[in-house]
Amino acid sequence: MPILHFLRSKRADWVVFAIALVLVGRQALSYAFWGIVDIAVRLNIWPPDLIAFDAYGYYSQTTILHEAVFVAACASFIAAFIALVLRARLALPLLVFCLVPGIADWVMMTSIPQMANDLSGYIHLIGHLVAVCALAYLHRRGFLR
């Protein structure tokens, strides 16, 4: 049973850790990027033709509640990523907490006409759930400190 032998090895822990790092890092990087876009649009310094997206039109339609949810998601994903890089046990509860503002942000985002058909949230959700499972595995194995 070579697969069982591998799953019991420390190499498997590092492979699962790398997968979690990529998935959580991608989410944190995505939220950080859109946070920068949000701030630049609010300060009116974002070049309108930099990306193929009407950032000014989108952010003019967001509510204060949506902004608060987005900031909570952004901060929690970045905190979860930092905790994961440090291999802290806190990474798992932080990542689980990220589900609430992350899903709420996605639902609120799809209520804006420009983003009504945004299916990328499903991909993010699947990646998020895989990362949560990976961290639960690593936590159980004692890989996280």
Key descriptive features of the protein:
145 residues
Radius of gyration (Å)? 18 Å
Largest sheet: none
Count of individual beta strands: 0
Question: What's the tally of helices?
Answer: 6
- What amount of the residues lies in strands? under 5%
N-end to C-end Cα span: 29 Å
Unreliably modeled segments: none
What is the overall pLDDT average?
A: 87
Shape: elongated
Helix content: over 70%
- Specify the structural class: mainly alpha
Could you give the order of the helices and strands? Answer: HHHHHH
Written overview of the protein:
This protein is mainly alpha-helical and 145 residues long. The protein is 74% helix and 0% strand. It has 6 helices and no strands. Helix 2 (10-42) packs across helix 6, helix 4 (64-85) runs antiparallel to helix 5 and helix 5 packs antiparallel against helix 6. The relative contact order is 0.15.
Short summary of the structure?
This protein is an all-alpha fold and 145 residues long.
SSE blueprint:
Elements: H1 2-7, H2 10-42, H3 55-59, H4 64-85, H5 91-110, H6 120-141
